[in-house]
Protein backbone atom coordinates (compact mmCIF):
# COMPACT_ATOMS: atom_id res chain seq x y z
CA UNK A 1 0.00 0.00 0.00
CA UNK A 2 2.85 2.39 0.86
CA UNK A 3 4.59 1.55 -2.42
CA UNK A 4 1.41 2.16 -4.41
CA UNK A 5 0.60 5.49 -2.79
CA UNK A 6 4.23 6.66 -2.98
CA UNK A 7 4.44 5.66 -6.66
CA UNK A 8 1.18 7.43 -7.44
CA UNK A 9 2.43 10.59 -5.70
CA UNK A 10 5.82 10.41 -7.43
CA UNK A 11 4.41 9.86 -10.91
CA UNK A 12 1.69 12.50 -10.51
CA UNK A 13 3.67 15.27 -8.83
CA UNK A 14 7.42 14.64 -9.17
CA UNK A 15 7.77 13.11 -12.63
CA UNK A 16 6.39 16.11 -14.59
CA UNK A 17 8.22 18.73 -12.50
CA UNK A 18 11.55 17.33 -11.34
CA UNK A 19 13.56 18.53 -14.36
CA UNK A 20 12.22 22.09 -13.96
CA UNK A 21 12.92 22.20 -10.24
CA UNK A 22 16.44 20.97 -10.98
CA UNK A 23 17.04 23.59 -13.66
CA UNK A 24 15.60 26.43 -11.57
CA UNK A 25 17.02 25.16 -8.23
CA UNK A 26 13.50 25.41 -6.83
CA UNK A 27 12.53 23.88 -3.47
CA UNK A 28 9.22 22.08 -4.16
CA UNK A 29 7.16 23.48 -1.28
CA UNK A 30 3.80 22.36 -2.75
CA UNK A 31 5.06 18.83 -3.41
CA UNK A 32 6.36 18.56 0.16
CA UNK A 33 2.95 19.69 1.45
CA UNK A 34 1.28 17.08 -0.74
CA UNK A 35 3.69 14.49 0.67
CA UNK A 36 2.61 15.59 4.15
CA UNK A 37 -1.07 15.16 3.24
CA UNK A 38 -0.22 11.61 2.15
CA UNK A 39 1.33 10.94 5.55
CA UNK A 40 4.88 10.74 4.20
CA UNK A 41 6.30 13.30 6.66
CA UNK A 42 5.31 11.34 9.72
CA UNK A 43 5.78 7.84 8.42
CA UNK A 44 7.69 6.58 11.46
CA UNK A 45 6.13 8.99 13.97
CA UNK A 46 3.90 7.12 16.47
CA UNK A 47 0.18 7.40 15.73
CA UNK A 48 -0.52 9.16 19.05
CA UNK A 49 1.60 12.09 17.78
CA UNK A 50 -0.10 12.31 14.40
CA UNK A 51 2.14 9.94 12.44
CA UNK A 52 1.58 6.68 10.62
CA UNK A 53 3.48 4.63 13.22
CA UNK A 54 5.32 2.59 10.58
CA UNK A 55 8.95 1.48 10.40
CA UNK A 56 12.20 1.78 8.47
CA UNK A 57 11.18 -0.83 5.91
CA UNK A 58 8.14 1.24 4.98
CA UNK A 59 10.34 4.33 4.83
CA UNK A 60 12.82 2.79 2.37
CA UNK A 61 10.00 1.57 0.13
CA UNK A 62 8.62 5.11 0.08
CA UNK A 63 12.06 6.63 -0.52
CA UNK A 64 12.85 4.36 -3.48
CA UNK A 65 9.67 5.54 -5.21
CA UNK A 66 10.23 9.23 -4.49
CA UNK A 67 13.90 9.14 -5.52
CA UNK A 68 13.00 7.31 -8.73
CA UNK A 69 11.68 10.63 -9.96
CA UNK A 70 13.16 13.39 -7.80
CA UNK A 71 16.22 12.93 -5.61
CA UNK A 72 15.92 16.51 -4.32
CA UNK A 73 12.51 15.75 -2.84
CA UNK A 74 13.87 12.37 -1.77
CA UNK A 75 16.60 13.75 0.46
CA UNK A 76 14.24 16.29 2.01
CA UNK A 77 11.89 13.49 3.05
CA UNK A 78 14.71 11.19 4.15
CA UNK A 79 16.37 13.77 6.42
CA UNK A 80 13.02 14.91 7.85
CA UNK A 81 11.89 11.38 8.72
CA UNK A 82 15.12 9.74 9.83
CA UNK A 83 17.27 12.55 11.25
CA UNK A 84 14.58 14.80 12.77
CA UNK A 85 11.41 12.84 13.61
CA UNK A 86 13.57 9.79 14.43
CA UNK A 87 15.63 11.14 17.36
CA UNK A 88 12.70 13.10 18.83
CA UNK A 89 10.51 9.97 18.80
CA UNK A 90 13.31 7.79 20.19
CA UNK A 91 15.12 10.03 22.69
CA UNK A 92 12.75 12.97 23.23
CA UNK A 93 10.77 13.65 26.41
CA UNK A 94 6.97 13.28 26.36
CA UNK A 95 6.71 17.05 26.30
CA UNK A 96 9.08 17.32 23.29
CA UNK A 97 7.16 14.63 21.43
CA UNK A 98 3.85 16.35 22.11
CA UNK A 99 5.09 19.79 21.08
CA UNK A 100 7.10 18.90 17.98
CA UNK A 101 6.06 15.60 16.41
CA UNK A 102 2.50 16.57 15.36
CA UNK A 103 3.83 19.70 13.60
CA UNK A 104 6.54 17.68 11.86
CA UNK A 105 4.14 14.92 10.78
CA UNK A 106 1.70 17.50 9.40
CA UNK A 107 4.44 19.23 7.42
CA UNK A 108 3.93 22.49 9.33
CA UNK A 109 7.65 22.37 10.05
CA UNK A 110 10.21 20.59 7.90
CA UNK A 111 13.26 19.39 9.80
CA UNK A 112 16.98 19.98 9.28
CA UNK A 113 19.93 18.22 10.92
CA UNK A 114 22.84 20.42 12.01
CA UNK A 115 25.98 18.41 12.74
CA UNK A 116 28.56 19.28 10.07
CA UNK A 117 30.73 22.40 10.35
CA UNK A 118 33.31 23.98 8.05
CA UNK A 119 36.16 22.16 9.84
CA UNK A 120 34.20 19.07 11.00
CA UNK A 121 32.84 16.86 8.23
CA UNK A 122 33.98 13.22 8.39
CA UNK A 123 35.47 13.92 11.83
CA UNK A 124 32.12 14.89 13.29
CA UNK A 125 33.26 14.73 16.95
CA UNK A 126 35.47 17.77 16.34
CA UNK A 127 32.58 20.24 16.04
CA UNK A 128 33.17 23.66 17.63
CA UNK A 129 29.66 25.09 17.94
CA UNK A 130 29.41 26.00 21.62
CA UNK A 131 26.52 25.50 24.00
CA UNK A 132 27.11 27.80 26.99
CA UNK A 133 25.13 27.12 30.14
CA UNK A 134 22.84 30.01 31.15
CA UNK A 135 19.91 30.41 33.49
CA UNK A 136 17.14 28.00 32.36
CA UNK A 137 18.95 26.65 29.34
CA UNK A 138 21.84 27.07 26.89
CA UNK A 139 23.12 29.59 24.37
CA UNK A 140 24.36 28.17 21.05
CA UNK A 141 27.08 29.92 19.03
CA UNK A 142 28.68 28.61 15.84
CA UNK A 143 28.29 27.90 12.14
CA UNK A 144 26.87 24.74 10.60
CA UNK A 145 27.60 23.87 6.96
CA UNK A 146 25.86 22.07 4.07
CA UNK A 147 22.61 21.89 5.95
CA UNK A 148 19.98 20.08 3.92
CA UNK A 149 16.70 22.10 3.85
CA UNK A 150 18.42 24.86 5.90
CA UNK A 151 16.65 27.80 4.19
CA UNK A 152 13.24 26.06 4.20
CA UNK A 153 13.26 24.26 7.55
CA UNK A 154 11.03 25.03 10.52
CA UNK A 155 12.89 22.98 13.12
CA UNK A 156 16.60 22.26 13.55
CA UNK A 157 18.20 19.41 15.47
CA UNK A 158 21.53 20.96 16.45
CA UNK A 159 24.64 19.34 17.93
CA UNK A 160 26.92 21.55 20.05
CA UNK A 161 29.75 21.18 22.58
CA UNK A 162 28.43 21.44 26.13
CA UNK A 163 31.72 20.69 27.90
CA UNK A 164 34.88 21.86 26.06
CA UNK A 165 37.09 20.08 28.63
CA UNK A 166 35.05 16.85 28.46
CA UNK A 167 36.00 13.58 26.78
CA UNK A 168 35.81 13.67 22.98
CA UNK A 169 32.45 12.34 21.80
CA UNK A 170 31.01 12.60 25.32
CA UNK A 171 30.89 16.40 25.49
CA UNK A 172 28.19 17.18 22.96
CA UNK A 173 24.49 17.94 23.45
CA UNK A 174 21.52 17.64 21.08
CA UNK A 175 19.24 20.70 20.91
CA UNK A 176 15.92 21.53 19.25
CA UNK A 177 15.80 25.00 17.70
CA UNK A 178 12.79 26.42 15.86
CA UNK A 179 13.52 28.53 12.78
CA UNK A 180 12.13 31.67 14.42
CA UNK A 181 14.62 31.56 17.33
CA UNK A 182 16.42 34.87 17.89
CA UNK A 183 20.03 34.75 16.67
CA UNK A 184 19.48 32.00 14.07
CA UNK A 185 20.10 33.05 10.47
CA UNK A 186 20.54 31.37 7.10
CA UNK A 187 24.09 31.81 5.81
CA UNK A 188 25.52 31.10 2.35
CA UNK A 189 23.17 29.12 0.10
CA UNK A 190 24.97 26.41 -1.84
CA UNK A 191 24.72 26.00 -5.61
CA UNK A 192 25.03 22.29 -6.14
CA UNK A 193 25.96 19.84 -8.89
CA UNK A 194 22.86 17.73 -8.25
CA UNK A 195 19.80 17.29 -6.00
CA UNK A 196 19.07 20.90 -6.90
CA UNK A 197 15.42 20.72 -5.78
CA UNK A 198 16.76 20.30 -2.27
CA UNK A 199 17.90 23.50 -0.55
CA UNK A 200 21.27 23.58 1.21
CA UNK A 201 22.90 26.33 3.24
CA UNK A 202 25.05 27.35 6.14
CA UNK A 203 23.15 28.00 9.37
CA UNK A 204 24.57 30.61 11.72
CA UNK A 205 23.87 30.52 15.46
CA UNK A 206 24.63 33.68 17.42
CA UNK A 207 23.89 33.15 21.10
CA UNK A 208 20.65 31.32 20.29
CA UNK A 209 18.81 30.54 23.54
CA UNK A 210 17.54 26.97 23.94
CA UNK A 211 15.48 26.21 27.07
CA UNK A 212 16.27 23.06 29.05
CA UNK A 213 12.96 21.68 27.81
CA UNK A 214 14.43 21.48 24.29
CA UNK A 215 17.58 19.52 25.09
CA UNK A 216 17.20 15.95 23.83
CA UNK A 217 18.52 13.41 26.33
CA UNK A 218 21.47 14.14 28.59
CA UNK A 219 23.61 17.14 27.57
CA UNK A 220 26.67 14.88 27.10
CA UNK A 221 24.86 12.22 25.04
CA UNK A 222 24.44 14.17 21.83
CA UNK A 223 27.21 12.60 19.75
CA UNK A 224 25.88 9.09 20.33
CA UNK A 225 22.38 10.29 19.44
CA UNK A 226 23.87 11.85 16.28
CA UNK A 227 25.61 8.62 15.22
CA UNK A 228 22.76 6.29 16.13
CA UNK A 229 20.40 8.57 14.22
CA UNK A 230 22.76 8.48 11.25
CA UNK A 231 22.36 4.69 11.11
CA UNK A 232 18.75 5.34 10.05
CA UNK A 233 19.78 8.25 7.83
CA UNK A 234 22.28 6.08 5.97
CA UNK A 235 19.61 3.48 5.27
CA UNK A 236 17.52 6.32 3.84
CA UNK A 237 20.34 7.54 1.59
CA UNK A 238 20.99 3.96 0.46
CA UNK A 239 17.30 3.83 -0.51
CA UNK A 240 17.80 7.07 -2.39
CA UNK A 241 20.64 5.41 -4.32
CA UNK A 242 18.33 2.50 -5.13
CA UNK A 243 15.72 4.93 -6.50
CA UNK A 244 18.24 6.77 -8.70
CA UNK A 245 19.74 3.44 -9.83
CA UNK A 246 16.29 2.20 -10.84
CA UNK A 247 15.72 5.40 -12.81
CA UNK A 248 19.00 4.80 -14.68
CA UNK A 249 18.02 1.22 -15.49
CA UNK A 250 14.44 1.96 -16.58
CA UNK A 251 15.45 4.84 -18.85
CA UNK A 252 18.36 2.86 -20.31
CA UNK A 253 16.16 -0.15 -21.15
CA UNK A 254 13.71 2.18 -22.89
CA UNK A 255 16.44 3.89 -24.89
CA UNK A 256 18.25 0.64 -25.74
CA UNK A 257 15.02 -0.70 -27.26
CA UNK A 258 14.28 2.47 -29.25
CA UNK A 259 17.65 3.62 -30.53
CA UNK A 260 18.83 1.85 -33.67
CA UNK A 261 22.36 1.66 -35.08
CA UNK A 262 23.85 -0.69 -37.63
CA UNK A 263 20.32 -1.84 -38.52
CA UNK A 264 19.11 -2.96 -35.10
CA UNK A 265 18.24 -1.62 -31.68
CA UNK A 266 21.37 -1.00 -29.63
CA UNK A 267 20.08 -3.31 -26.85
CA UNK A 268 20.72 -6.20 -29.26
CA UNK A 269 24.47 -5.56 -28.99
CA UNK A 270 26.09 -7.41 -26.11
CA UNK A 271 28.11 -4.33 -25.17
CA UNK A 272 24.84 -2.64 -24.19
CA UNK A 273 22.84 -5.72 -23.12
CA UNK A 274 25.49 -6.80 -20.61
CA UNK A 275 25.61 -3.35 -19.10
CA UNK A 276 21.85 -3.59 -18.54
CA UNK A 277 22.18 -7.08 -17.05
CA UNK A 278 24.83 -5.89 -14.57
CA UNK A 279 22.83 -2.77 -13.75
CA UNK A 280 19.72 -4.85 -12.98
CA UNK A 281 21.63 -7.38 -10.87
CA UNK A 282 23.40 -4.70 -8.84
CA UNK A 283 20.07 -2.96 -8.29
CA UNK A 284 18.56 -6.10 -6.76
CA UNK A 285 21.65 -6.55 -4.55
CA UNK A 286 21.46 -2.96 -3.33
CA UNK A 287 17.75 -3.18 -2.63
CA UNK A 288 18.18 -6.38 -0.61
CA UNK A 289 20.97 -4.81 1.48
CA UNK A 290 18.78 -1.77 2.12
CA UNK A 291 15.77 -3.88 3.10
CA UNK A 292 17.93 -6.05 5.34
CA UNK A 293 19.35 -3.04 7.19
CA UNK A 294 15.85 -1.54 7.57
CA UNK A 295 14.41 -4.84 8.82
CA UNK A 296 17.21 -5.16 11.42
CA UNK A 297 16.49 -1.64 12.63
CA UNK A 298 12.77 -2.37 12.85
CA UNK A 299 13.54 -5.52 14.86
CA UNK A 300 15.59 -3.47 17.34
CA UNK A 301 18.77 -5.34 16.33
CA UNK A 302 22.18 -3.65 15.89
CA UNK A 303 22.15 -2.18 12.38
CA UNK A 304 25.20 0.11 12.24
CA UNK A 305 27.27 -2.26 10.08
CA UNK A 306 24.31 -3.27 7.91
CA UNK A 307 23.40 0.39 7.33
CA UNK A 308 26.98 1.23 6.37
CA UNK A 309 27.15 -1.77 4.01
CA UNK A 310 23.84 -0.83 2.39
CA UNK A 311 24.99 2.75 1.84
CA UNK A 312 28.46 1.73 0.64
CA UNK A 313 27.15 -0.77 -1.88
CA UNK A 314 24.04 1.06 -3.05
CA UNK A 315 25.80 4.40 -3.59
CA UNK A 316 28.71 2.90 -5.52
CA UNK A 317 26.40 0.74 -7.64
CA UNK A 318 24.16 3.73 -8.31
CA UNK A 319 27.10 5.80 -9.57
CA UNK A 320 28.24 3.02 -11.89
CA UNK A 321 24.69 2.66 -13.17
CA UNK A 322 24.47 6.40 -13.80
CA UNK A 323 27.76 6.32 -15.70
CA UNK A 324 26.56 3.41 -17.83
CA UNK A 325 23.17 5.03 -18.39
CA UNK A 326 24.83 8.14 -19.85
CA UNK A 327 27.12 5.93 -21.95
CA UNK A 328 24.19 3.95 -23.35
CA UNK A 329 22.40 7.20 -24.23
CA UNK A 330 25.59 8.49 -25.91
CA UNK A 331 25.50 12.15 -26.97
CA UNK A 332 21.80 12.34 -26.03
CA UNK A 333 22.63 11.37 -22.46
CA UNK A 334 25.02 14.30 -22.19
CA UNK A 335 22.20 16.78 -22.79
CA UNK A 336 19.21 17.91 -20.75
CA UNK A 337 16.88 16.37 -23.36
CA UNK A 338 17.22 13.13 -21.41
CA UNK A 339 16.85 12.67 -17.67
CA UNK A 340 19.94 10.48 -17.27
CA UNK A 341 22.02 13.67 -17.29
CA UNK A 342 20.24 14.66 -14.04
CA UNK A 343 20.48 11.17 -12.54
CA UNK A 344 24.24 11.22 -13.19
CA UNK A 345 24.60 14.48 -11.24
CA UNK A 346 22.19 13.38 -8.48
CA UNK A 347 23.94 10.02 -8.00
CA UNK A 348 27.21 11.69 -7.02
CA UNK A 349 25.99 12.96 -3.65
CA UNK A 350 24.98 9.49 -2.41
CA UNK A 351 28.69 8.70 -2.00
CA UNK A 352 29.32 11.91 -0.08
CA UNK A 353 26.66 12.89 2.46
CA UNK A 354 25.64 11.10 5.66
CA UNK A 355 29.14 9.65 5.80
CA UNK A 356 31.30 9.46 2.68
CA UNK A 357 32.14 6.10 1.11
CA UNK A 358 35.40 5.75 3.05
CA UNK A 359 33.61 6.52 6.33
CA UNK A 360 31.24 3.61 5.62
CA UNK A 361 34.33 1.42 5.03
CA UNK A 362 35.79 2.68 8.31
CA UNK A 363 32.57 1.81 10.20
CA UNK A 364 32.39 -1.66 8.61
CA UNK A 365 36.07 -2.46 9.16
CA UNK A 366 35.91 -1.34 12.82
CA UNK A 367 33.10 -3.88 13.29
CA UNK A 368 35.27 -6.57 11.68
CA UNK A 369 38.49 -5.75 13.49
CA UNK A 370 37.12 -4.59 16.84
N1 LIG B 1 25.32 4.33 17.48
C1 LIG B 1 25.51 4.64 18.81
N2 LIG B 1 26.72 4.97 19.33
C2 LIG B 1 27.76 4.97 18.47
C3 LIG B 1 27.64 4.66 17.11
C4 LIG B 1 26.35 4.32 16.61
N3 LIG B 1 26.15 4.03 15.34
N4 LIG B 1 28.84 4.74 16.53
C5 LIG B 1 29.71 5.08 17.49
N5 LIG B 1 29.06 5.22 18.68
C6 LIG B 1 29.64 5.59 19.98
C7 LIG B 1 30.94 4.85 20.24
O1 LIG B 1 30.71 3.59 20.85
C8 LIG B 1 31.68 5.80 21.14
O2 LIG B 1 31.21 5.66 22.45
P1 LIG B 1 32.24 5.66 23.74
O3 LIG B 1 32.89 7.01 23.75
O4 LIG B 1 31.34 5.45 24.91
O5 LIG B 1 33.21 4.56 23.50
C9 LIG B 1 31.24 7.18 20.65
O6 LIG B 1 29.99 6.97 19.95
C10 LIG B 1 32.22 7.82 19.67
O7 LIG B 1 32.41 6.91 18.61
P2 LIG B 1 33.80 6.75 17.84
O8 LIG B 1 34.89 6.62 18.85
O9 LIG B 1 33.64 5.68 16.83
O10 LIG B 1 33.92 8.18 17.17
P3 LIG B 1 34.93 8.74 16.07
O11 LIG B 1 35.25 10.13 16.40
O12 LIG B 1 36.06 7.77 15.85
O13 LIG B 1 34.03 8.86 14.73
C11 LIG B 1 32.85 8.20 12.79
C12 LIG B 1 33.27 7.88 14.22
C13 LIG B 1 32.15 6.94 12.33
C14 LIG B 1 34.01 8.52 11.87
C15 LIG B 1 31.87 9.40 12.82
O14 LIG B 1 32.52 10.61 13.13
C16 LIG B 1 31.13 9.56 11.50
O15 LIG B 1 30.17 8.85 11.25
N6 LIG B 1 31.58 10.52 10.64
C17 LIG B 1 30.84 10.87 9.46
C18 LIG B 1 29.95 12.04 9.75
C19 LIG B 1 28.70 12.01 8.95
O16 LIG B 1 28.18 10.98 8.57
N7 LIG B 1 28.16 13.19 8.73
C20 LIG B 1 26.90 13.29 8.07
C21 LIG B 1 26.47 14.69 8.09
S1 LIG B 1 24.73 14.80 8.11
C22 LIG B 1 24.22 14.75 6.52
O17 LIG B 1 24.94 14.57 5.59
C23 LIG B 1 22.75 14.86 6.46
C24 LIG B 1 22.21 15.54 5.29
O18 LIG B 1 21.97 16.71 5.35
C25 LIG B 1 21.87 14.78 4.08
Can you describe this structure in just a few lines?
The chain is α+β, with helices and mostly antiparallel strands and 370 residues long. It is built from 11 helices and 10 strands. The two termini are 41 Å apart.
Bound molecule types = acetoacetyl-coenzyme A
Shape: globular
Main sheet record: 4 strands, mixed
| Number of DSSP strand runs | 10
CATH homologous superfamily (4th level) name of the largest domain: Butyryl-CoA Dehydrogenase, subunit A, domain 3
Helical run tally: 11
Distance between the termini: 41 Å
User: Would you tell me the structural class of the helices and strands?
Assistant: alpha+beta
State which percent range the strand residues make up: 15-25%
Let me know the average pLDDT: 98
Number of domains: 3
Task: Give an account of the 3D structure.
With 370 residues, this protein is of the alpha+beta class. It folds into three domains: 109 residues, Butyryl-Coa Dehydrogenase, subunit A, domain 1 (Orthogonal Bundle); 107 residues, Beta Barrel (Butyryl-CoA Dehydrogenase, subunit A, domain 2), CATH 2.40.110.10; 146 residues, Up-down Bundle (Butyryl-CoA Dehydrogenase, subunit A, domain 3). It has eleven helices and ten strands. A four-stranded mixed sheet has the order 1-4-5-8. Helix 4 crosses helix 7, helix 5 runs antiparallel to helix 6 and helix 9 packs antiparallel against helix 10. Acetoacetyl-coenzyme A binds next to helix 5, helix 7 and helix 11.
Please describe the topology of this protein:
Elements: H1 2-14, H2 18-24, H3 29-37, H4 56-69, H5 71-91, H6 94-105, E1 111-114, E2 130-134, E3 137-148, E4 155-161, E5 172-178, E6 184-189, E7 200-211, E8 215-216, H7 222-258, E9 260-261, E10 264-265, H8 270-298, H9 304-329, H10 340-349, H11 357-369
Parallel strand pairs: 1-4
Antiparallel strand pairs: 2-3, 3-7, 4-5, 5-8, 6-7, 9-10
Helix pairs in contact: 1-4, 4-5, 4-7, 4-8, 5-6, 5-7, 7-8, 7-9, 7-10, 8-9, 9-10, 9-11
This protein binds acetoacetyl-coenzyme A (CAA).
Amino acid sequence: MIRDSAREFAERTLKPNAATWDREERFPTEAIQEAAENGFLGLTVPEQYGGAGLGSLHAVILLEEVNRWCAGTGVTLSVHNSLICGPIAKYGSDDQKQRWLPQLAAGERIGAYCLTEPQAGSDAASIRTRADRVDGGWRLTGTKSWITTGPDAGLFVVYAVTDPEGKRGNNIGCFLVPAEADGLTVGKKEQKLGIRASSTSEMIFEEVFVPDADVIGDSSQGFKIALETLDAGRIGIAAQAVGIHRACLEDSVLYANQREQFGKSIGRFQAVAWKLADMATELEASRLLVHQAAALRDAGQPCTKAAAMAKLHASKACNLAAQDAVQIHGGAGYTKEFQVERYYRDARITEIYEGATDIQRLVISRHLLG
